[in-house]
UniProtKB/TrEMBL annotation:
Residues 23-208 form the START domain. One of its GO terms (biological process) is lipid transport. It is found in: Cytoplasm. Pfam families: START. It comes from the Eukaryota. This is Phosphatidylcholine transfer protein.
Amino acid sequence: MPFQTDDFIDFAKQFVNPDLSSWQSYVETPEFKVYRRTSDRNSSLFEYRIIGGWKDIPARILSHVYLDLAYRKSWDKHMISYKDLGSNTFHYLIKYPWPMSNRDYVYEIQKKEMKSQDGKRMWAILGDSIKDPQILSQVTHEKGVVTIDNYAQRIVIAADGDKGSQVLMDYFDDPKGNIPTAVINWAAKTGVPGFMKSLHQACIKFEKEHPGFEEQSADVIEFEL
């Protein structure tokens, strides 16, 4: 089901005034702080909130690179393949460390350019796992692959001057299978900073290869705080 305009506005407001009262500090890097809390989607697992940014990655570059799956194959070592199912839906296959089985996702993801009443430019990205049988019927799952069917992400990427970006990301997935809690915690504590580092390097490379890149938005959502 497509996301509604209010869904994008609500999370953009979270970016402007984040509420951390229910979150616990988890891990920190020079650029980002990672928080976690018990998830409403599965009380035995955590969801994560990432807050921070880069001074050398423009928001317009970051918001594009994050969703460019064709380019992602060149820099994300965990990505195996993807298929565009149409209407902002995708099948995505990732590599898990041995001896665990690989995982795949079928999800919807949408991006909207937004502008707050004070003129701040930002992009909101919303993604969620799909339960629609008609869409799921388009996907062929490889033997031995575990399908993650409980997944969500919410991201706002805002301009920080002309050359920087600020980020708020909420993320959850249920990896399924009999994975020890210690392994899940280790993966979150090391995997999130590792992914952000790779994403940063990918953005640097993309901007060098596409100087002056500017993605045209069909429409811009303006909202009041």
